[in-house]
User: Fold this.
Amino acid sequence: MSDYDVIVIGAGIGGLTSASLLSKRGLKVLLLEQNSTAGGLCNTISKGGYHFDIGASLFWGFGHGEIFHYLFSEFNILNDLLERESVVRKIEPGLQVILPNHRVNVYSERERLYEDLKREFSSDLTNLVKLYQESDKTENEIFNLVNKRHGYSLKNHYRQDSNRLKMLYADIAIFLKRKKNILQSFNWVNREEIERFIDLQLIYFARKGLADISFPLLTTALGIPRRGIYGIRGGAGTLSGILEKQLVRYGGKITCNSFVEEIILRNGRASGVKVRTEHSVNEIGAKWIIADTSISNIGDNLIKKKRKKARFSKIAKKMGHGLVPFTVLLGVDERVIPEQMGEHAIMMRHYELPPEGDNVIFISVSPSWDETRSPQGKRCITATYFIPADESANIDWEKERGNKTEEMINFLEQLLPFVSDFVDCSYSIAPDDYSRITLRSNGIARAGNCRSDIYGFNGLSLKTPVRRLFIVGGDAFPGSGAAHTAKSGVRVAEEILRKI
Ligand SMILES: Cc1cc2nc3c(=O)[nH]c(=O)nc-3n(C[C@H](O)[C@H](O)[C@H](O)COP(=O)(O)OP(=O)(O)OC[C@H]3O[C@@H](n4cnc5c(N)ncnc54)[C@H](O)[C@@H]3O)c2cc1C
Assistant:
């Protein structure tokens, strides 16, 4: 007899999404989290009166037809959070793209964006407008297609319907042709600057640049600010807290400080977990196991049977080397933040260097309307860059932490002059820390390759090498954000509901 219908390992956004939806549908769910709070990378930590986001800080997916809109409607909390209490608020401009000699505000309204583009890239304006118009047309088609066919209904979401899939892939083939036509037809006057401007938006929303992104993903990434960028009162931890609350509200159980050591297999099927808490080690049985952790963590640590381990390692290898983040959190006097500074920016420091590593900095400033985040007259700043995992392995982060933090503050001086003189509180999160927070090996935030056999509609999350084991989270869905991760949670919840 199983103790639970479903055990979810890990309370990241993916795990929380599956667990809360399945509880709502009446399943007996247990969510086990090794940290003392839920959230994983979607979390907020408190230091010296400031409340900093440690990972996700810019949010999307709250517009009509999008993933969090669906989830909040499902839990009947949409009006409370978006309207009555304004917990979730649209931010304008959603993103600021900063190049050494340009600064563009990416507003949700295209007309406002074009005004900025006119100021910064007047000689390329016509072609840029054409690019956005063409991209938006395709993005609308993908959006409608995905929503029409998979209306987040939990009845037919991502259902394996081969006719539908065939239609979808046929459409994608048309989209792929379109990328070639569009990009080849443009004669940019400032080619390098324009390409970097587009690169930075793609890197933010899809972690891929122009050179290696597919056309559907390109249009989806450029379309994200148009559909709306949002801030959350209290920071990222509020979003995780909302989902945790729904899980408990519908009878699910969450246990923190509970480290899953092993996924127990019986007759080749996942049948339970071995979990270590401060005082004991227990085996708990379940009909289904959902793992919100990386493929390499499952293969290296959670599965003990040799042959199955090898199959996970093979998939992890296919996914390639990942990127690891280094983040600096600063509490600063708000007078040091210039008026033109957006709440979310991506900055490339030098044209001579490729748009990667510490040449690209992601910066978020806590919203001026969120007084819960910092002492009066102060604001939180989060600055991150991502470097390849193998490069990070050669850095002694404990030794270098101070230097790297100082270096980051110097980079920020470019945007926030004199910031170093106004730092009230400073804290850094190195890859080793991310590794401890998420249990992803080397602190890898995201795998290198977006392979369709791994991420595709019929991909790995539903078809793992172990029966009755599903995977959610960053390794189970293409894209780079909490919204994508939540989609992986819906997909797995639907699959389990379909099977019962
Ligand atoms: C620096 C940084 C900045 C980011 N910025 C943004 C942004 O601005 N906007 C955005 O949308 N996204 C952003 N992201 C991405 C976003 O944060 C992630 O996609 C998302 O939060 C990942 O969720 P997840 O479900 O994969 O789980 P994770 O966040 O990885 O959480 C997994 C959880 O599982 C637990 N766990 C794992 N193994 C076990 C085990 N054996 N036993 C018990 N518990 C276990 C971990 O403790 C952890 O809590 C950012 C990421 C990083 C690193």
Summary: The pocket of flavin-adenine dinucleotide is lined by residues 9-15, 32-35, 40-42, 55-59, 259-260, 292-293, 297, 325, 327, 384, 438-439, 445, 473-474, 480-483, 485 (CB under 6 Å). The radius of gyration is 22 Å.
